[in-house]
Write a structure and sequence with these properties.
about 70% helix
């Protein structure tokens, strides 16, 4: 027996003994005296006290029983609700596992089962909408994501999902409108500004994309590599704006924008290429050539060598093209690429001796140059030196790995450079084989397998 229980029993005995002693001491008063109640009813004082005591006892017991019954009922409800929540979470987890394993239809069944038990399950509404969007059922996805948003209006997750829904549906206006609501909730959301910038870029609305980009840069962390890439992203947007101005005939404005862009981003190759084109369109051909030369010196990009070569060849000035490439060689810190382009130009002009002299000097410099060996092979072939040409072509084949066998997955058709035990694309084992067919089906040759008859 516990100490507490023993003490309660002891107190009860003491009280009972005190009551009995009190009753015996006042027996004549309690039994002989009467109390007059309503309606002339008379009751002994002792009986009235006993009745009052019993009434209090039963009232106390009744209140205790009601309270305990309420507690038991609440406990039962909580246990029932807990079991229901466990079943819901288990069903939701099954849906997530099915989704991760690529079984979308099964995931949908699990998520719908969750909503049958709890139509206000926030995470299920969001996930179900994402699955439906992936299946191209955009209207249904939008409906579920709207329900999730109404449940938690201060949560931006359903709003981002709605942006993706409208974008997938092709409704860019609504996608931007939802992004506006996100920004109204959190004006410092760099993710929302990035997404808005992405939508404007998708629509090629470069001016609005630049405005959104400036917001991104303002909110970006200068110490973050990702945010640093964001800042560089703006160079591309400004390049597109300048290109649009150029196409619209606003040449001077385009040239001014491109010069500012190059000053801030000296290694941005597209701006150098486009600046030369803009100058050439405005009749400043010498400035265009100077811009491409400057661009090559700053970037070392062979694209600018191609621009120089094509500029002079279009004007039937091959000697000027040769001189331009020679200047690039003399000014370059690493002259392998400009020498290769000069040799290629010599080959294009049928100056085979010069081409051979320049290109053969590069063989020791280049560790991987199938195009170089191809050009040397062509030169030997034109000189009717078949053995030397064959040797160069062998180098092309060797460096290009043209003789390497290709492996293909029978399950999904994914190709692999070498054999593996499991396909990384579909996850199947024992499906990788060499992609080598002993014969070509007649259907691929366009020949009918059945005999054909003609009537004359």
């Amino acid at each position: 027996m516990r100490v507490r229980t023993f003490l309660l029993i002891l107190v009860a005995f003491v009280l009972a003994a005190a009551l009995v002693q009190t009753f015996l001491a006042n027996r004549e008063l309690l039994v002989g005296s009467e109390l007059e109640l309503w309606g002339g009813l008379r009751v002994a004082v002792g009986a009235s006290l006993a009745l009052a005591f019993l009434a209090g006892v039963f009232l106390t017991i009744g209140i205790g029983l009601v309270r305990e019954a309420g507690r038991m009922l609440d406990h039962w409800r909580m246990r029932k609700q807990g079991r229901k929540l466990e079943e819901i979470e288990e069903e939701y987890s099954r849906g997530l596992v099915a989704l991760l394993e690529g079984r979308e239809d099964e995931a949908l069944r699990h998520f719908r089962a969750v909503l049958e038990c709890d139509s206000r399950h926030f995470h299920t509404l969001v996930k179900l909408g994402e699955v439906l969007r992936g299946q191209g059922r955009h209207a249904e996805a939008i409906e579920y994501h709207r329900k999730a948003h109404h449940l938690r209006e201060d949560n931006t997750q359903p709003l981002y999902a709605l942006v993706e829904d409208h974008e997938a549906q092709g409704d860019m206006d609504r996608a931007r409108a939802v992004l506006g609501r996100i920004i109204a909730i959190n004006k410092q959301s760099i993710a929302a500004w990035r997404k808005l910038r992405s939508l404007h870029i998708k629509e090629q609305n470069w001016e609005m994309a630049l405005a959104a980009h400036e917001k991104v840069v303002k909110l970006a962390d200068p110490q973050s590599d990702h945010d640093a890439a964001d800042r560089r992203f703006g160079a591309g947007i400004r390049h597109e704006i300048a290109s649009a101005r150029l196409e619209a005939g606003q040449t001077k404005e385009a040239i001014s924008m491109l010069r500012r862009l190059i000053k801030e981003h000296p290694t941005f190759v597209p701006a150098h290429v486009r600046l030369g084109e803009a100058l050439r369109r405005s009749g400043q051909e010498s400035d265009a050539v100077a811009a491409w030369n400057t661009g090559f010196e700053a970037t070392g990009s062979p694209t600018l060598l191609t621009a120089l070569e094509e500029h002079y060849m279009e004007r039937e000035q091959p000697l000027a093209a040769i001189e331009a490439l020679k200047r690039c060689i003399s000014n370059a810190r690493k002259d392998t690429l400009p020498r290769f382009y000069l040799g290629k130009l010599f080959f294009r002009l049928e100056m085979l001796d010069d081409a051979m002299s320049v290109l053969s000097s590069l063989e020791s410099r280049a560790t991987y140059a199938p195009t170089l060996h191809y050009l040397l092979g062509r030169i030997h072939e034109r000189r009717r030196n078949e053995r030397a040409a064959a040797a160069e072509y062998r180098k092309v084949i060797q460096e290009s790995e043209l003789v390497a066998l290709e492996h293909m997955c029978r399950a999904c058709g994914e190709t692999h450079v070498e054999w593996v035990d499991r396909c990384a694309a579909c996850g199947e084992w024992n499906t990788i084989e060499v992609n080598f067919r002993e014969e070509i089906p007649l259907e691929e040759l366009g020949i009918s397998a059945a005999p054909m008859y003609t009537a004359r």
